[in-house]
Automatic annotation (TrEMBL):
It comes from Micromonospora saelicesensis. GO terms for molecular function: acyltransferase activity, transferring groups other than amino-acyl groups. Coiled coil: none annotated. This is Nitroimidazol reductase NimA, pyridoxamine 5'-phosphate oxidase superfamily. Residues 227-394 form the N-acetyltransferase domain. Gene3D superfamilies: 3.40.630.30, Electron Transport, Fmn-binding Protein, Chain A (2.30.110.10).
Amino acid sequence: MYPPTARTTPHRSRDKMSYDQAAAHAVLDEAYDCALSFTVDGQPRVLPTLHVRIGDTLYLHGSTGSRPLLAARGDDGLPVCVAVTVLDGLVYARSQFHHSANYRSVVAHGTARLVTDEREKLAMLTALVEKVGAGRSTATRPPSRRELAETAVLALPLREVSVRARTGGVREDEADLHLPHWAGVLPLRLTAGAPEPDAGVTAPLPAYLRTPRTPWHDPVPLHGEHVRLEPLELAHADELHAATADPEVWRHLSVAPPTAPAETAEVIGTALAAQHRGERVAWVQRCAATGAVVGSTSYYDIDPERRAVAIGHTFLGRPWWRTGINTEAKLLLLSRAFDDLGAVRVAWHTDIRNVRSQAAIERLGATREGVLRMHRQRPDGSWRDTVQYAMTVDEWPNAQARLRERLLRTAPVA
């Protein structure tokens, strides 16, 4: 527990206050930024900055030319107040007066010192990088001596600390309970969007940036003699565009044929955004013999509760048609669905005009179940009828045997 002081003891709403050390540390560790308050020449200043906690010390990141860092150079340090808040929800009351927010906040008072020891500064920067992703410090270049010299760090001992929080629902006057207005809580949370790699990045997405997901939503690598399936990334755009730059490849797909690698990157971005939302699992297809990117395929309509999934969004470069690549890719995806995930049903959907695709799906051993009329809109604006196929778990053993036999008769791509 932190001992209450005159500065951390409130004059009202004392029921919201806490001096619990673990609670304070939890807020400081969860939040990414803070407000640093201090005075310069008798004038108040507040700066937003990044922070990280190491043990009982709060470190604040800054520039060597900033006001607080310049003021902290003296032997006496810099008196500061740091505030950190995590907003958990908005509270809607029947009366305007009782609208509120659910939150957890920490206020720390004390005298900050300028960190001059290079090892301590390096430890702080490493901890700050680790805060945004466990393992990030080993997957990046450490700061040079020049960069360390250009970075200023303040250290604030956590001694005078208080926690203030509000939780729960609406609190309002009994006389207002009859009013015909909606009341309740809108929960809030910080949610990461889909990662957007910088231009030229070819490294795969780090594990700490991947959304936690069920096995059904995990694009695990799958390997065969003809094809390798790897998680689709934006870095595949150039190769994928070159392999599939044929209008015939895109004729019956739900997107217009890309005319440049940037447009193929947009197709990949759409797939990855759907994957981030849990709606799709996307792979790139590589020729196992040459290592070349040749196409892409996906799971979609993923339903772990009903143990069902669909295979689609598949496009393969024309030079690799009628090879073992598409057949083995489907075998790998079916094996994962039925044998690894415990699926009882795998489905396919294809444009009624796409006779070649329908024949390929039927050769897999799937059963045509019907036609979904005016099911999806084509890139040209017309409405397509969709033919639906499915394979069930009791049909899988025979289908698997036929697919393996067919692949034995197919020579790998040279």
